[in-house]
Amino acid sequence: MARRKDIDGSMSVPTFYGKELRWKREAAGLSLEELVEGSFYGKSHLSDIERGERRMPLELAQHVDQVLDTDGFFARCCEDVGKARRGPHAAYFQQALDAEQHAEVIELWSASTLPGLLQLAPYARALVLAAHPMADDAWIEEKVSARLARARLLDADHGAPEYWAVLHESLLADPVVPPTEMAAQLDHIAELARRRRIVPQIVLRKSGPYPLMAASIMLMAFVDAPPLVYTEASYSGNTTDDPALVKQYRKAYDRLRAVAQAPDVSLVMIEAAAEEYRNGKQPNRLE
């Protein structure tokens, strides 16, 4: 039998919380399966929480408190654990950051910027600098490096999520970086599509009214947990698993996908825009 790996509770707030959770579970003589029984979560989800690799959802924390008779301890503490910073990412993104590492499917819509998991360094750097123009170079590079590290998720040989990106046509036509860098950026997205790491779809400027026009969202589905939706603005974001709200966003995203161009047509559009930037031309625009 493989020796169980110990948890170093001093590493972070989540690992301290996870170590306490494992201790209480084992003191009660319960297996992972027995503790999650009756909840909407799987044993792998709970195991990740015990190792400090996932944050405890409030609903699961309340279930654990009831089963272990811990007088609300885990529910009271899970909010503090959720706020604990992990690396240079924004605090409001932490829950979504943890979740995307375990997602089976990620579906994203963006009308203003290319998604973080698809960005190359020049594009990411331009966005970080635009949002924080007074920041020093070291801080900016830390942010850029963290964003690029997230993108390794799509290169995993095993366990990479199914990633669906619905993007507005303006992201191809309105350059954020110089033409040669825009060409490289779009080439990168096209390569990911050709390698079947992502499925891109483009919503045309002339599509007229369509769902989620005023939103930027990421839907995540899991094998061992309820789905989540993450919504984001310039300096804030929110992650929720409220079933009614997730269902509403789910329906809107499906309708949006129906408005967008087919994946093969969208890939041709991305490649054509990259070629125009490479040749020093501006991609076709609607003024």
Q: Would you spell out the secondary-structure blueprint of this structure?
A:
Layout: H1 13-27, H2 32-36, H3 43-50, H4 58-68, H5 73-83, H6 94-100, E1 105-110, H7 121-131, H8 137-151, E2 162-168, H9 170-173, H10 179-194, E3 198-203, E4 217-221, E5 228-232, E6 237-240, H11 243-259, H12 263-278
Parallel strand pairs: 1-2, 2-3
Antiparallel strand pairs: 1-4, 4-5, 5-6
How would you explain this protein's 3D organization?
With 287 residues, the protein is of the alpha/beta class. It has helices at 13-27, 32-36, 43-50, 58-68, 73-83, 94-100, 121-131, 137-151, 170-173, 179-194, 243-259, 263-278, and strands at 105-110, 162-168, 198-203, 217-221, 228-232, 237-240. A six-stranded mixed sheet has the order 3-2-1-4-5-6, with helices on both faces. Helix 1 (13-27) packs antiparallel against helix 5, helix 4 runs antiparallel to helix 5 and helix 10 packs antiparallel against helix 12. The radius of gyration is 21 Å and the shape is elongated. The model has no long low-confidence stretch (mean pLDDT 88).
Characteristics:
287 residues, alpha/beta, 434 Repressor (Amino-terminal Domain), Endonuclease, Chain A, 6-stranded mixed β-sheet, elongated, DUF5753, Helix-turn-helix transcriptional regulator
